[in-house]
Amino acid sequence: MRDSEKLDLILEKVTGLETDMVEVKADVAELKTDVAELKEDMVEVKADVAELKTDVAELKEDMVEVKADVAELKTDVAELKEDMVEVKADVAELKTDVAELKEDMVEVKADVAELKTDVVNLKADMTEVKADVKNLHMEVSFVFDEVERVHSILDNHKADRSAHTA
Q1: How far is residue 148's CA from residue 115's CA, in Å, rounded to a whole number?
Q2: Average pLDDT of span 56-82
């Protein structure tokens, strides 16, 4: 190979290297831009992670409260179950009382029917008593009239001094 060919080859290789260097520099510049963007993204990611840590801490606190509320609800449910047992017992007792009241009502109805009969009998008796009282009034009136007549005779007799000669 001749010198000029060698020089041409070297020139060609140096020109290729220069082109490659420009490309590498462009790539490096692009990589620097990408790294800068990645750094910005990392700052945002760190901020997001910090926010997530805060959120997780708040959620943990909320979970503690929720667990306490659930425990309280379990206690309330247990108390309600106990109350329901008592209510069921009360309902059973009320059913018994209602049955007894029904029996008592049957007896009261029988007593009322008996009282109605007694009232009917009393009305009849009262009618008889009224008639008897009316008759007694008439007899008393007759007796009073007779007493007045006898008084009148006695008064006349007392007034007549000639009848008394003794």
Answers
A1: 47
A2: 96
Structure pTM? 0.40
Q: Which helix (H) or strand (E) holds 41?
A: helix 3-159
Looking at residue 166, its pLDDT comes to 55
CA gap 33, 25 in Å, rounded: 12
Cβ–Cβ under 8 Å, residues 127 and 133: no
Counts for the chain of helices (H) and strands (E), in that order? 1, 0
d(CA 98, CA 102): 6
Strands (E), 80-125: none
List Cα–Cα distances, 69 to 56, 59, 74, 148, 151, in angstroms.
19, 15, 9, 104, 108
A 10 A CB-CB count for 12 gives 10
